[in-house]
Amino acid sequence: TGPTGSGKSTSLYAFLQILNQDAVNVVTLEDPVEYFVQGVNQSQVVPEIGYTFASWLRSILRQDPDVIMVGEVRDNETAELAVHSALTGHLVLSTLHTNNAVGTIPRLVDLGVQRFLIPATLNIIVAQRLARRLCNECKRLIEPTPEQVKIIEISLKELPSEFSKTLSIQKPYRLYEPVGCDACKGKGFFGRIGLYEVLRMTPELEHVILSGESEAEVLVEAKRQGMITLRQEAVLHLLNGVIPFTEVVRETY
Q: What CATH code would you report for 8-126+199-212?
């Protein structure tokens, strides 16, 4: 999940490359086909003739696929058919537009998926963003403001205890800002880095979802089980001097 331009398609293709083996029948429907992958049966939607995500999903099961990649779940019919495909033993990969990983649950409910089917068919949710990486040749060390320190410490405090024990973060915090040089063509940035929030389905999380709890309650349970949020991931990159504070605020909530 993630907004347009967050790298969702690139991640999907990376997963397909891993799953693409001689004994595995991988089929995709995309809008449009962005990369051609040898050994994968790829097709593109053509709404003008009624060839949509939903109509394709209804017929694709006859081809006995092992892995199904749906470019995007956009409507009720596509969501229900994707869930049905997962229920019948197929590995289904797809994308949604939500703010975070936990937001996928209410989004699927909003699309008409019955709540009791979500834990049975959902294995993992990955929310992602692309943050601009600081140029190592010209980035400049700065002293964080009190407000920045407050945001950093809130994020660090909520990290899973097992993960926090492995960190060696020293104070005062060392932050960097972009400057601009010949190496980065005056932009202060050179390339981008992925920020990821991974939510795995567990029996405890399944209980919370089936109980009809709010998105906030699902988030609390996900954090209790060790999920690192997009904001926390961004703060860790910030403290490692990879991204500036402006990217933390711009890409995470």
A: 3.40.50.300
Q: Which residues of 177-200 are buried (b: 16+ CB within 10 A; e: fewer)?
A: ebeeeeebeeebbbeebbbebebe
Residue 119 · residue 194 · CB < 8 Å: no
pLDDT in tens, 39-79: 999 999 898 898 888 888 888 888 889 999 999 998 998 99
Helix segments in 88-184, DSSP class H: 104-110, 118-121, 146-157, 161-164
Q: Which two tokens stand for residue 42?
A: 């790829």
What's the distance, Cα to Cα, between the start and end of the chain in Å? 15
Q: Which CATH number fits domain 127-198+213-252: 2.40.128.110, 3.30.43.10, 3.40.50.300, 3.90.550.10?
A: 3.40.50.300
What is the pTM for the complete model shown? Answer: 0.91
Q: Determine the angle formed by the axes of helices 203-210 and 215-224, rounding to 10 degrees.
A: 170
- Cα–Cα distance, 131 to 124 (Å, whole number): 22
Half-sphere exposure of 116 (CA within 13 A, CB side): 0
Distance CA 218, CA 229 (A): 13
- Tell me, what DSSP letter sits at residue 100? S
